[in-house]
Amino acid sequence: MDSSLVQVNPLLLPLNKEKTVYDGFITVEEQDFRMRILLPPDRQLKQAKLHCSWQLKHLLHGYEHIVKQRLQQSTDLVSFILELKTVLEVGLKSRPECSSIPPPRYYSQLISEMETLGWDTLLFIDTEFRTLRLKAEDSSGRQHILTIKLKSKHPAEAPECSADLPVPLAITWTPQSTLEQLHKQFVLVLESLTEFWDVLDELDSQTWILEPEKPTWSDTMRRITIGNNVSIKVEVNPRHPKMLPECCLLGAEHVVTPLRNKLNANMHLWNPNFSVLHNLRDVLEIKFPSPATHEKSGFSADCGICYSYHLEAAIPDQVCNDPRCGQPFHQACLYEWLRALPSSRQSFNIVFGECPYCSKPITVKMLAKKS
């Protein structure tokens, strides 16, 4: 019987001379599932006990009565194993999610790679040993996280990788690649973006940022306070962070127009050898309020309609152009207010009406429809 069992399932072997304890793996559809069979002294299958790994238990869920029946009816261990394989094949077909359970070599490969990389790099690993989060640091000491989702055929199949970056994460992978090599590639990507994050760090520390309030590593935009209800939105290029960024001035026209004229007239003075903040000061001919000189609350006026600063993710960025008023509003609030006025009118995507505070003419763009 033992020679037949080796032919049918070579990974399930007896552990004692009496051959009442068998341990190992049952192979189905090129997948190995851990199991142990305990036979009574007379080696009768009717009294046998079957111990399964959690993967095998999950696969056999709903088929327990069939397995028990096969134990009662099978004349020898070989025939039982053959019938059990048939049950497992049916289980795999009815549960496609089980077909991705990795073989034992997957886990040994993963442990070996982590030992080479260093366990101190590992921040998280899920219970299925599929999703890993590895930490990495750029040359300025910023902490970053690389999320890796391994496939069941690792390393033959490339993993899915993601990170909080302003550019797509391009990773090269071959069947011979390792997690250590993957981590090194990620560190090189971080180094290529270090100057970009240095530029934004200076803006974050030396100016008052209105948006985003809690920037992530992937954010390329900063809305910087210039004065009361006046700001500039800059979009920094991650690949060329010290080049002239896209700029958009926001605020009342009587304040924004002179600044826009200076920006256009002095654009040629932009020097990539200097920082973005230094260049913005020179080109706009202004000094930005900073945490060292001003309180942020002085530049965070509430909406004149809903009397709050935040409306979901939006802040008041629509301003009355009358110099004596200058009241800010959320775009959504102002749009709904003007739309309700009998005297308001619409032309293309612009709504024209009167300021809720001073009754002077005011306009707002229609809200984009959410898809």
UniProtKB/TrEMBL annotation:
GO cellular component terms, A-Z: cytoplasm; Fanconi anaemia nuclear complex
Pathway: Protein modification; protein ubiquitination
Keyword set, alphabetical order: Cytoplasm, DNA damage, DNA repair, Metal-binding, Nucleus, Transferase, Ubl conjugation, Ubl conjugation pathway, Zinc, Zinc-finger
Catalysed reactions, semicolon-separated: S-ubiquitinyl-[E2 ubiquitin-conjugating enzyme]-L-cysteine + [acceptor protein]-L-lysine = [E2 ubiquitin-conjugating enzyme]-L-cysteine + N(6)-ubiquitinyl-[acceptor protein]-L-lysine
Domain RING-type, first and last residues per copy: 303-359
InterPro entries assigned: Fancl (IPR026848), FANCL_C (IPR026850), FANCL_d2 (IPR043898), FANCL_d3 (IPR044037), FANCL_d3_sf (IPR043003), FancL_WD-rpt_cont_dom (IPR019162), UBQ-conjugating_enzyme/RWD (IPR016135), Znf_RING (IPR001841)
Signal peptide: none
EC supergroup of this enzyme: transferase
Catalytic activity, EC: 2.3.2.27
GO terms classed as biological process: interstrand cross-link repair; protein monoubiquitination
Main subcellular location of this protein, as a coarse class: cytoplasm
Compartments it resides in: Cytoplasm; Nucleus
CDD domains for this protein: DRWD-C_FANCL, DRWD-N_FANCL, ELF_FANCL, RING-CH-C4HC3_FANCL
GO molecular function, one term: zinc ion binding
Claim: Repeat is one of the keywords in the record: no
SMART domains linked to this entry: FANCL_C (SM01197)
Name used for this protein in its record: E3 ubiquitin-protein ligase FANCL
Organism taxonomic ancestry: Eukaryota, Metazoa, Chordata, Craniata, Vertebrata
